[in-house]
Predict the 3D structure of the following.
Amino acid sequence: MARLIVNAIAEDTIAAPSNALESYIVVSVTDSNGVAVTGLTVGNFAVGSAIVGPGGSVSHITSVSSGGSVTGVYILRIAPLAGQTWKSGVYIWSVRVTSGANAGQTLCSTLMD
């Protein structure tokens, strides 16, 4: 197993307290030599909701897409569980990426306001 280097930044964008619109996590994935890892899909990512706004629910990935012209960058669209809404406060997510036998993880956060 080799290490993947994973960096992530979260932003609430259109997600806000009392709605269930998607929030975003932008993730960069490179191998241990710094080479972009391409071709990843939703099955290669896992998101944990370590901390949620008071009364909030855990989140799940709704889709994954390319993050633009730089290879190895992905946009994870996330949402609260069905029937739930975002709550005011800080959300801290763990992001795990697997590709074959290779894996890596990181943390990111956003203030839902």
Notes: The longest strand covers residues 89-99. The mean pLDDT is 96. The beta strands are 5-11, 23-30, 45-51, 59-66, 73-80, 89-99, 102-112.
